[in-house]
UniProtKB/TrEMBL annotation:
Domain named CheW-like: residues: 14-154
Cell compartments where the protein resides: Cytoplasm
Gene3D superfamilies for the chain: CheA-289, Domain 4, SH3 Domains
PANTHER family, sorted: CHEMOTAXIS PROTEIN CHEW (PTHR22617:SF23), CHEMOTAXIS SENSOR HISTIDINE KINASE-RELATED (PTHR22617)
Nucleotide-binding found in the keyword field: no
GO cellular component: cytosol
GO biological process, one term: signal transduction
UniProt keyword annotations, A-Z: Chemotaxis, Cytoplasm
One protein family per Pfam: CheW
PROSITE patterns reported in the protein's UniProt record: CHEW (PS50851)
Record protein name field: Chemotaxis protein CheW
Amino acid sequence: MFEMTAKSNKVASEGRYLSFQLGHEIFAVEIQCVSEIIGMDKITALPDTETYVKGVINLRGNIIPIMDLRLKLHLIETQYSKQTCIIIVDTSTNKVGIIVDAVQDVLDFNCKQIDLTPEICSVSNLGIVTGIGKIQEKNVILVDMFAILASAKINFDKLRA
């Protein structure tokens, strides 16, 4: 399993975020956890995995597990499009690919632009949603990628075997 403890009740901090689209909503993650962004690649499916774990890719000789963030966040599954891409997240011990509908932009948020997550948000209990960023009259859902990965059921040791 992913060996990391999710930070409970983490609140988003000011800084730079990579924004991306899932459906009609815009999400963002802290830019320092992003290693690279690649187009959709051939994904090798693995048996007996969670529905959000789509399989693995070979990225320059490294086996990278791929997770569909839509499914992990319990959103409706859709067909992949030309804009669909994979954000490679580097956790310092492992790399994971996250499928998103489209990458948007790099955004700078200051503390006045970030609101706390409403208590009604069920994924906030897992520490996944860390705040709501406001930029140009739009709401951006700020997520903690480490909390998402900590809650994922990916066995990296089996992938290396």
